[in-house]
Amino acid sequence: MRKFSALSLAREALRSHKGWDRQWSSPELKKSYDVIIVGAGGHGLATAYYLAKEHGITNVAVLEKGWLGGGNTGRNTTIIRSNYLYPESAGLYNHAVKLWEGLSQELNYNVMFSQRGVMMLAHSVHDVQVAKRHIHANRLSGVDNEWLTPEEAKAYCPPLSISKSARYPVMGAALQRRGGVARHDAVAWGYARAASDLGVDIIQKCEVTGIVRDASGAISGVETSRGPISAKKVGVVAAGHTSVLMAMAGLQMPLESYPLQALVSEPVKPIFPCVVMSNAVHAYISQSDKGELVIGAGTDSYLSYSQTGSLHILTHTLDAICELYPMFSRMKMLRTWGGIVDVTPDRSPIIAKTPVDGLYVNCGWGTGGFKATPGSGHVFAHTIAQDRPHAINTGFHLDRFRNGRLIDEAAAAAVAH
Amino acid sequence: MLLIRCPYCEQDLPELEFANAGEAHVVRSSDMVGLSDEEFETFFFIRENPKGISFERWRHVHGCGRFFNAARDTVSDTFLLTYKAGEPKPSLDDLEGQKK
After folding, report:
1. How far apart are CA B37 and CA A123, in angstroms?
2. Is the N end or the C end of chain B the one with fewer CB atoms within 10 Å?
3. Are residues B51 and B75 in contact, defined by beta-carbon separation less than 8 angstroms?
4. What confidence tens digit (pLDDT) does each residue in A58-98 have?
5. Residue of A223, A239, A245 whose CA lies nearest to A372
6. A306/B2 CB distance under 8 A
7. Is the dihedral of CA A19, A42, A115, A307 positive or negative?
8. For position B97, what pLDDT does the model report?
9. Bridge partners of residue A64, in order along the sequence
10. How far is A320 from A50, CA to CA, in rounded Å?
11. Which of B49, B56, B60, B72 to mutate to test the interface with A (most CBs of A within 10 A)?
12. Nearest residue on chain B to A256, judged by CA atoms?
């Protein structure tokens, strides 16, 4: 694979960019692999990349029923932050932020990681207290987070209205300066390219239809739409479809799948310098480098695998956007979409071994998995390769729903993902 | 927006009048103290989360206020049936034929 460098770009510029190879190969499916990863989204591809790079396991297939990065990796609002309340979460998401900071160099692929700051607004006395509690907890965990007055928030994000006559006036904000956004597709493409270069087979349009276990109950392979494949280890990284896949191995999961929607506006000149989230009125917004305002809405209240949601969810979010940023009230929205997110009871992910030997699962990222992509792949690769969790994901096991050691970000009010 | 038939009001009404209340037919034990950790986990956390026909509870919050059950296809989001709380769970085979 050709490296991207100033020299290679200049040379290709001089010959109409005709010398670039395909960024990843489309190999023939083999009959057997050491490890099969189910799902070629960001987390699955990152897992395959770190298996090859850090653990020397290159006989790996990543199976994808659709196209690479076409699920939630291509549907999220690309926000990256690590200001979670509990030490386990702060450890996991901060591990990811540290990897994000070097990711473009590591992959030799520009993932357009931009640490423009993520600001979370407080609209009530309760919000203020919760935000400050988060800030103190974050600083103890080594995660940057600071308190801004409404005027400081306005200075950081000029389009924000801090009018006292608003229905839910801004009473301050928590700012994580190291937070920001990245180009979601580039993350999938960059990991795919780097993993493929290390010998990983990425197989698209290959749906897993069964998980095969041997007489002892251990994993022996998978059934797919392109025939059976044998493997001693299978890692399921299938987001909204995790329950469906795990049922193939006879396991029931503490998961529910909901539609989560987002939308973008028509592209405009640079107007919005950072990421702003408001959990109380439920609106996230940032501006992509293409100029679109990227707006995150909420989940529907019911289970669905339809990748669409109800319109009232979107209009509710736009009401909040217009109230917080009156100047956007006449913006035209360009398109809306939905993704299916798998939500755990404590709103924390599961990155773990399962009761089935050789079967591993990375799921439950709910409404906020994109930010964790590099960290998630890194610790999941460790879990698969070593057959035991990395120190960072030790707490994110399946047993917590039985023994009660929840990582209860859901109860830590004002935490959106 | 879904249109939902309240089996008490006997009308098709917009989703905004209703609140989803999770999986239906999850039976709370009459002896909670006697449950093992495993049984409690199954009752409290493990969910069917089907891709296909889901049995779920809804509450007509901005109407009669009553809970009822529904069978809905989670792929098409189509309601196949709503029925009053306490009525038996319909058979999957009968419902499969109605899927669109």
Report:
1. 40
2. C
3. yes
4. 999 999 999 999 999 999 999 999 999 999 999 999 999 99
5. A239
6. no
7. positive
8. 78
9. none
10. 40
11. B49
12. B49
Q: Which residues of A272-298 are buried (b: 16+ CB within 10 A; e: fewer)?
A: bebbbbbbbbbbbbbbbeeebbbbbbb
In angstroms, rounded to a whole number, what is the distance separating the alpha carbons of residues B93 and A280?
43
B46 close to A (CB below 8 A): yes
Per-residue tokens: B25: 């037919």
C-alpha distances out from residue A262 to A179, A255, A325, B32, Å: 20, 22, 17, 41
Q: Distance from B48 to chain A by nearest Cα, in Å?
A: 7
pLDDT at B94: 83
> What is the identity of the amino acid at A194?
A
Residue B24 Cα distances to A58, A141, A290, A330, B28, angstroms: 45, 40, 45, 43, 11
- In this predicted model, what pLDDT tens digit does every residue of A33-49 receive, in sequence order? 999 999 999 999 999 99
CB contact under 8 A, B2 and A310: yes
CA angle (A31, A33, A37) in 5-degree steps: 115
Beta strands in A83-151 (DSSP E): 118-122, 146-148
List, in order, residues 6 or more apart from B20 with CB less than 8 Å away.
A301, A302, B56, B57, B58
Neighbours of A246 (CB within 10 A): 22
pTM of the model: 0.96
Q: Give B47 to chain A, closest Cα distance, Å.
A: 6
Tally of CA atoms within 13 A in the half-sphere of A242 that contains its CB: 33
Contact across the interface for B74 and A306, Cβ inside 8 Å: yes
| CB pairs < 8 Å spanning A and B | 67
B54 touches chain A (CB under 8 A): yes
Tell me the Ramachandran region of residue A387: left when phi exceeds 0, alpha when psi lies from -120 to 50, beta otherwise.
left
Backbone angles phi, psi at A186, to 5 degrees: -65, -30
Q: Which residues contact B91 (CB under 8 A, 6 or more apart)?
A: none
**What are the residues of chain A with a beta carbon less than 8 Å away from any beta carbon of chain B?**
241, 243-244, 252-257, 301-306, 308, 310-312, 342, 345, 401-403
B-chain CB neighbours of A312 within 8 Å are 1, 15-16
* ipTM for the assembly: 0.95
DSSP string, A39-83: --SHHHHHHHHHHHHHH----EEEE-SS-TT-SGGGTS--EE---
A244 to B54: CB separation less than 8 angstroms, yes or no: no
Sequence-ordered list of residues with C-beta below 8 angstroms from that of A233, at least 6 positions apart, any chain: A34, A35, A36, A219, A358, A359, A360, A384
